[in-house]
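Hi there, hope your week has been kind to you so far. Would you mind checking whether the tokens look sensible for this chain? I owe you a coffee for this, so here goes:
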Amino acid sequence: MGKRGVWIIGHGSSNPRWLDYVDQMIAKLESPSPIVLSFLEKAEGRLIEDGIRQLRGFGIKEVFVIPLFVSSGSTHIAEIQEILSQYRQEFTFIFGSCMNDHPLVVQHIIDQAKELSDNCNQESLLMIAHGSDEDDFQQKWKEILESLTKQIKEKTNFLRVDYATFLPNTILKRLEGLKNTSKQILIVPLFLSKGIFTEERIPAMIQWYPVKYNGKAYLPNDWITEWIQEQIDQYYVKE
């Protein structure tokens, strides 16, 4: 086994504040070997090719890759895997998991819903996610969202707990199904950071319904650092 290292790969953003959030989060991590942070796009000088150069500079051969993504149903995961396949003769890549239905994600959603809630017994919770229009990835999204729904139902007393996606677009259908049985619908977005979906597209879809929504994304939150640290710790325990 060669020298090991951790490589965190995110989507990237043209918003410097988003990159700052991620940098601050990574700075809190503890690892016995180097941690490299790269992005798929929108981060000049910090792309995957730049990350490869950093790994070489550290002399790393076995790389634990943590995808900084909400769901393994994201097509970007396959995109990252395809790019890294070009370097498999030089490195051994071991992939960690996306956030998916991790207990920390469940707690985040519950916390966001409680922040919006006035009386959970008269309210429904609707999670809104990106989704995918490609069958295999859509199935992964479905499994993750159904797991989140089940866990949240078990831990809360909302009238109903449901989910909707942009791809395929099921948002209006879900809102129509909830509006007649709920005094209020609490909307929690399942997006890593604020952006066009949380600030424009979701508000446009929900504006005519009895909803409460604050647009808060996963970042910035300390639980994401905890989620990454847990994966790093588990990786090194396997020595």
Q: What stands out?
A: The domain at 4-99+220-237 is CATH 3.40.50.1400 (Rossmann fold). The chain is about 45% helix and 20% strand.
